[in-house]
Write a structure and sequence with these properties.
- This protein has 255 residues and is mainly α.
- The protein has 13 helices and no strands.
- 40% of the residues are buried.
Amino acid sequence: KLLRPLRDHYWSEWASLLESAVNVEVTPSVCEELDEIYGNASNLKDWAKAELVNAYAKAAVKIKGKAYEVYMDRACSLLNEIKDDALRIITRVYVYNLLASAGVSCPNVDLCERLEDIDKHLEGIREESSNPGEFLRNHPGFEDYVRWHGTERPEEALNTVIKEAHIFALFSLGICALRRGELSKAADYFSKVANIERELGSWEYYLTDKRYAIKAMALNEESLKRAVSELEELWDETLQVIEPDTPYLRSAAYA
């Protein structure tokens, strides 16, 4: 409330502040601000629209009742107002990952089908961003987003954002495959995510994602032996690279 006088002069920055607030707790005052800012959403900069979309989606999955439907509708409709095509795709990945994990979707949207299409678009973004400077010049909305989002140089932050989006897309596709009963496909998606996390040295996420892959294998009679073998390998690998008393080791133990 102390910062509210700044709102009318800095709506885009206010959107980002709301996204951070939703990460902590969706209080009545936060809900009030989420309602208030929607009337000015069309005036927001592209990067701020992306932030607000994330805020609505996160708020929606945290609360129930009529407000859930309102926030979901706002998140999904505001997605289409993001002008920069690359930023719009990245934002869709973040939102769809959140929704897939929560088991919900945008109205009249086949989330899993849309994710498969988005993953193809991500490949195009990865190729185009091989020249970060030129990519950011061609996508000013995306440049504003990465500048606001991280402490790294825009070129470095761009690489991080795209890698994260790729991981989220694959993980969401794994969840979709799991819910469809496509266990082999789910295991492959989760394994791909785990391998990327391993390459990045993100051991906690690697262990979590590997667990998902092994569980998908274990649910499939045809790959049960493979699941046992992968679990043994994971345990041996964990003992080699992680201290015995760390939480990461406990994660592996519950695979």
